[in-house]
Amino acid sequence: MRHKIARAARSVARAPDDVTLVAVSKRQSDERVDALIAAGHSVFGENRVQEAQERWTRRREAHGDLELRLVGPLQSNKVKDAVGFFDVIETLDREKLARALADSFEKSVARPRLYVQVNTGEEPQKAGVAPLEADAFIASMRKDFDFEIEGLMCIPPVEEEPALHFALLADIAERNGVAKLSMGMSADFETAVQFGATSVRVGSALFGDRGV
Ligand SMILES: *Cc1c(COP(=O)(O)O)cnc(C)c1O
Questions:
Q1: Is 146 a member of any domain?
Q2: Number of domains in the chain
Q3: Ligand 1 atom nearest to CA at 91
Q4: pTM: predicted TM-score of the whole model, two decimal places
Q5: Strand, helix or coil at 201?
Q6: Is it the case that residue 94 has pLDDT exceeding 90?
Q7: How far does the centroid of ligand 1 lie from the alpha carbon of residue 134, in Å?
């Protein structure tokens, strides 16, 4: 996996170390997850708050250097748990959620880094701000909530050319001065790296097929 990322990075004259591999461990067996930790991997993604807490609370105590990222939708009523648990929340996409995060920050010392999710394909069933609303949303996060936006995240529509979506996300990040791009999954992480991904979220290509 790392060597494929490195090859994709070098093909566009990027440094391989500028790309973080986020191992998406949702619905993977404990054996597979533990094997990856034993091999020295430390950055993992989960898409549900409760499942992540169940799986990672004990591991976090055993391995102090783990970084956990929330890559799935966050409901306002789970914000307190998510803030206390994740190092990074990649799915900030609405004002109501920002308000809940801000409330939680007042009562907690935990400060997860924040990514704004952009619904680049404008799919009704998918979370994320619409591309045309992204500039105003990012500006509001900074001005009205005093949030530092570390990066942008997207999940392209399955049946479309992902490169167009990666290019769109990179463009939105650049014009808003946002440094990081979370894009690319098992099927398209190499393309994402070529379009500037600073982290790729890979599940099945790393662990094997997920359970149901
Ligand atoms: C499950 C998931 C992934 C990983 O998907 P794979 O296709 O298994 O690599 C990446 N990002 C998000 C948001 C996911 O929910």
A1: yes
A2: 1
A3: 13
A4: 0.97
A5: strand
A6: yes
A7: 22
